[in-house]
Amino acid sequence: MNNPLADRIRPESIDDVVGQKHLLAQGKALRNLIESGDIPNLIFYGPSGVGKTTVASIIANATNRTLRRLNATVASTQDIKDIVAEIGTFTAPNGVLLYLDEIQYFNKRQQQTLLEYIENGKITLIASTTENPYFYVYPAILSRSTVFEFKTVAAEEIVPAIHRGFDILSKENAVETELEDGVDKKIAQGCGGDVRKALNSVENCFYATPIKDNKKFIRLETAGELTQKTAIRYDRDGDEHYDIISAYQKSMRGSDIDAALHYLARLLEAGDIASACRRLVVCACEDVGLAYPQIIPIVKSAVDIAMMVGLPEARIPLADAVALVAAAPKSNSVYMAIDAAISDVKKGNYGSIPRQLQNKHFDGEDADIKGQFYLYPHEFDNHWIEQQYLPDGLRNKKYYDFGPNKNEQAFKAYWDKIKGNKNEKD
Predict the structure, then answer these.
(1) How would you write 112-131 as a 3-class SS string?
(2) 214: left (phi over 0), alpha (psi -120 to 50) or beta
(3) Is 262 helix (H, G, I), strand (E, B) or coil?
(4) Which one of 87, 174, 219, 353 has the fewest beta carbons within 10 angstroms of its own beta carbon?
(5) How far, CA to CA in Å, does 157 sit from each of 20, 161, 187?
(6) Predicted confidence (pLDDT) at residue 366 exceeds the cutoff of 80
(7) pTM exceeds 0.90
(8) Which residues contact 310 (CB under 8 A, 6 or more apart)?
(9) What angle (nearest 5°) sits at the alpha carbon of residue 362, between those of residues 361 and 368?
């Protein structure tokens, strides 16, 4: 019984798999493929502990093929060749189904070698990856495979597996087990959708609980101690990182304070205070902008305080700033304007700076009219005078439109009045 509990109670049929109903329920594509017995090359994409290996084992059993497993973090090209050598022998009379875990760790050359055996039909491949396969898997393998995305398992779907785990441990150790109310939910919620983690917590809780009167009474406090910090799925180079920070900024932009604070909490629990601060400042500038321009120094101050005090206290000024950004009126008028201006510059849509705006220097002999003729706005009424600022080729170009919020409309009204009055006088 040295194998982990998760391996000892691994499901042997599709109906016993925890979660993944979008793939394995009656009538769903992956289930239909498995039941047909005609298995193509497959790529399973999703977080760890959600059933990818289990489903691969079920497929191997259903198709009467020899299952071979490799982990790309340690496997070599020779390992693949050794598996190919088994084909047609008594160990693999009906062909080999190769389950290759973490395929993203195979380099391009290794994946090309694998492609050779996929193409000639000697191997049926089921590859798994926790990273987006469209970024990490060799395109030729992708084009010959069907990709299925496995989802994080909901807590309520994990609860039955937790009870099954405790029952098996009770039988194996010939001792009765009783759970305090809430233990199963605590473990299910604390595993972050990872069934393997949940079952590891079941084992830890079982063996950490002493026997009293031939019974193990699993306490909620024990479950809490042994499942803490397990809910954080976070890899700073992986999809989960970018998904969380994307949801974080979009929640602030969408003015959902509760969602924004939720994603802030996930970033802080993962220790990623840098991403939390960076996206917060960007959101204040990009999504609030001139609708509430005072927010930019306020958010900068909150970030400075957070970086000065560090975690866990940093959560307080950051939460204040996140709630403020989410609650503030929104405007992306300047964000759109600068992007439009940069687009023109990149396309080469610019010309010589108007003479009146240039740094003072002497005109060449070829200049028909000599002199700079700059009009100093502060010498005129309302500190404004009309003159050309953009290059000739962009003379009438408009990048910025005043947003509909109170601040920008006040600015617009001010300048409409001044410029309108001036134009009327002219």
Answers:
(1) HHHHHHHHCCCEEEEEEECC
(2) left
(3) helix
(4) 174
(5) 10, 8, 12
(6) no
(7) no
(8) 273
(9) 130
Helices 195-208, 183-190: axis angle to 10 degrees equals: 140
150, 18 contact by CB (below 8 A): no
Both structure tokens of 18: 């925890």
Give residue-wise pLDDT tens across range 237-260: 556 677 889 999 999 999 999 999
Characterize the bridge pairing of strands 146-149 and 123-129. Answer: unpaired
Q: Is 282 helix (H, G, I), strand (E, B) or coil?
A: helix
What the block records as the tokens of 186 is: 């605590």
Query: Which amino acid is located at 40 in the chain?
Result: P
Residue with tokens 């240039």: 358
Would residue 19 be called left, alpha or beta, if left means φ above 0 and alpha means ψ between -120 and 50 degrees?
Answer: left
pLDDT recorded at residue 9? 82
In contact, 344 and 350? CB cutoff 8 Å: yes
How far apart CA 169 and CA 272 sit, in angstroms, is 38
Whether the CA torsion 162, 167, 170, 173 is positive or negative: it is negative
Q: Which helix (H) or strand (E) holds 298?
A: helix 295-309
Distance CA 214, CA 174 (A): 9
Q: How far separated are the first and last CA of the chain, in Å rounded?
A: 94
Q: Could you tell me the two tokens for 275?
A: 């991403």
> What region does 353 belong to: left with phi over 0, alpha with psi -120 to 50, or beta?
beta
92: β partners: 87
Backbone angles phi, psi at 218, to 5 degrees: -80, 115
What residue type is 138 in one-letter code? Y
Which residues, at least 6 apart from 104, have a Cβ–Cβ distance to it below 8 Å?
Answer: 72, 129, 130, 131, 133, 136, 137
Burial call 106-135: b when 16+ CB within 10 Å, e when fewer: beeebbeebbebbeeebbbbbbbbbbebee
From residue 121, alpha-carbon distances to 9, 76, 86, 397 in Å are 32, 20, 14, 61
Find where tokens 């969602």 sit: 259
- Which has more pLDDT, 373 or 103? 103
Question: How far apart are the C-alpha atoms of 267 and 244, rounded to whole Å?
Answer: 7
How many alpha carbons lie under 13 Å from residue 133 in its C-beta half-sphere? Answer: 27
Residue 371 pLDDT exceeds 70 = no
How far is the C-alpha of 337 from the C-alpha of 280, rounded, in Å? 21
Residues 77, 111: contact at Cβ < 8 Å?
A: no
Measured distance CA(315)–CA(295) in Å, rounded:
18
CA–CA separation, 259 and 271 (whole Å): 19
